Amino acid sequence: MAEKKRVYPYIPNSEPRIREAMLRETGVDSVDELLTDIPAELRMKGRMNLPVPFSAEADLKRHVEGILSRNITSGEYLSFLGAGCYDHHIPAVVDEIIGRSEFLTAYAGEPYEDHGRFQALFEYQSMMAELLDFDVCNVPTYDGAQAASTSLRMASRITGRKKALLAGNMNPDRLRVVQTYLDPVMSVEIIGWERDSGLLDLEDLGSRLATDVAAVYFENPSYLGAIEDQGEKIARMAREAGALTVVFVDPSSLGVIQPPSRYGADIACGDIQPLGIHMNYGGGVGGFICTRSDRKYVEEYPSRLFGIAPTSGKEWGFGDVAWERTSFANRETAKEFVGTHAALWGIAAAVYLASMGPKGMADLGKVIIQRSLYARKVIGEIPGVSTSTPSAFCFKEFVVDLTRTGRKVGEINEKLLSRGIFGGKDLSEDFPELGQSALFCITEKITMRDIDRLVEVLGDILC
Amino acid sequence: MTSRIRPFHHMRWNEPIIYQLSVEGQRGILVPEAEKEIEQIVGDGLSSIPGNMRRKDLPNLPEMAQPQVVRHFNHLSQENLGADSNIDIGQGTCTMKHSPKINEVFARSHKITDLHPYQDCSTVQGILEIFYRTEELFREISGLDRCSVQPGGGTHGVVAMVSMVRAWHRDRGEDQQRDEIITTLFSHPADAAVPKAKGYKVVILPPDEEGLPDLEAYKNALSEKTAAIFFTNPEDTGIFNSRILEFTELAHQKGALCCYDQANANGLLGIARAREAGFDMSFFNLHKTFSSPHGCGGPATGLLMVDRKLGVYLPVPVVRRNERTGRYFLDFNLPKSCGKVKAFFGVAPVVLRAYAWIMSLGADGLEEASRIAVLNNNYFMKKMLKVRGCSISFPRHPGRVEQVRYSWEKLKEETGFGTGDVQRRIADFGTHYWASHEPWVIPEPFTIEPSESYSRDDIDEYLEIMEQISRECYEEPEVIRHAPHNSTVHHIDHEYLDDPGKWAITWREYSKKYTGYFQER
Question: Looking at this predicted complex, what is its ipTM?
Fold first, then answer.
């Protein structure tokens, strides 16, 4: 007797009688008859050598959760890690909404059957534009790194120039992505920065601005946490040289810090992960690009842009603005390319911003600044530890210089780890000029007691 | 037989734009406040901000209490369909399938959501093990050797492959000479758009009479200038290119790399692989074939597999296992790497769901998924071709794998209604249908892909909807003309999306251009 065939819960027509009936109605005796286009030499020999499956859900759960249990989360330990991915509080309402299956499992429906996602993402764009004080925002890109790269390529198309000047104090992980994206269409030069203040070296910038420069790019705050307050001057210098100014900004700062549009940026970009999206081991990222409502800019976006339109029933209708820009419409003549990026995170950010409101974003910025100032002060008081350079005002992150302790950051972080603390990101490889320094991050989740505990443990380790 | 057609009406809340719901003073969530002691030491914090950088006004966000936030977004979600709620076989090429609920339990676990990418590797052994084991599974699935989980979607998989192609030829000093990439008209648009954006000239092969990439045109296009070929197979028509090995061998003879777009691999699991077809690399959409939900368009993963010889060019970092200690770690030391394509390391929850899906099915289950997908597709096709006005693309080649590109050309000739009209009307039946990637080489196209998740009854129900719409086109043109009738909204005026003077991409832009309901200011 033939072995009893398994019926798979995810595959309804694996049930043998149904399968047989369907084969009959299709006019074949076996699925192989439907695969005759695949010649023998291309057919896989034998079967795939995969592990024995966990067919029962209970067994699968035990297996996967067993593996995941080997992770230690940022909630289980006390974490001071940031550097482009942030452990902010995620309002429960955000997870509730993006967990709804109508959003979670939808893909590319038309505005008639997927009205909801069009409206939710239009609202996302609308709230982001207000936060950034610009007129236009796109449906999220893969991440902030892609948003930065595309902003630079938009600048290149607008100016007809091929060089980007990038701030030397930008996020190094992001720099690597930008380099990949721009290669070989645009070239990159790095602008120097002042070690003492942490701000851009405008003299160096001036010497690099030439008629081939498409854009000047800097980050606010910089990778090292400093708020760049020379934005207006930088934008003026860029403008005088015929270049655009692109600023990458942390949106969680914008309740209290001026958005780039107000100091002359032509394009603002960034990552929405701080706006209500779990870190997900770095997978909770999504990029935004904001500009003025100027056709010259709008037509250079590669991304989806959802617009509002009237309907014959006088409802709010939605759809894609200027579809012809996209690679879905014109494959080899499109503005870069578009695909499946991070739409669900855009809906998450919409729920987050609607929940926080104007006051919530201001309160968030305020508490982060207060606790960071406190942390920077008390950590800097530990003997051998300095937090005074770069000297500029910092938002959320700051440099902790451990050089004078004679110990390596890696070694100190290992000790912190054994006491249940994730220390700051080690900067010694990416910024050797900072010696043995680490980048510490203080979100609103870090309390005074947490900071005091860090100081106590650090003191213990270093004495 | 009783009709399967349901008297459907989509949820219709006439939901206001969120700014219209704003009530001054309302709060949706409160934020922690600094401790009194901190306030005593550092003050209000805000006065420390350099004067010119302090934002003194509040951003114009809506002000809402939590119940109203929840209700608003619940209404919007109810005005969205989602694969869980419909027979989602109309989005051909995209492999809509069931996303098992247990995998959501895993993906939402704090053991994955609350991990920081720069945690010490000793604290993330679980997720690194998932990445590592996923690579092992994909070695079997693809026949290739090395992996990157970094790309954040299918198009991003193409970005990674193009970057690898450049790194490979650069390393051989042939980058300047090899400035062309060849793709086909029925490969995904990204296979042309991305190489173009990355500085390559792109040659697009037309189909021959059987819908296959034209071999003669291909031979003419191939030269020592060719950097790589980017092919989908089966193509978006559902036709499998039986001569693919000839294509890859010819490319190799010219020194070009062969790149496979397996965004959709749903008809081939355990049946035919990238390795046997002669490809050097391939990417797989974990949000398509491997069941991670599409999330309205991401987050996603285009997992990349490459031949051993290309391993050193992979995006950094790669996941490795120390054979002595058994511990997993991230290896950044790839001096020839093509760089990075994405922030950090990839979309962990998507990889996790795909891992769980594969481990729930095993080799037999994966092959069964593909075989049933092929059966479902051919079952559907046989019946669909009996629907009045419908025909198949490239009738000289009737064989199809997991999807079919159909045409309403005849319907259009006979009734004046085409694929866009069918698309508007189908919303009235609680399902969805997509008109295919552009350009529309096949007149009035649509692409149906009934993956293994759909039962025979589901497929029959969808067929009945298609039959009814066809009948209406012939017999009740007014019904079609004014569709949709039972949707959330009525006919949308596209002029407001294409005319720069009229479009509004944000509420703020709308408010500058209009007052009330689209009354120009």
Answer: 0.98
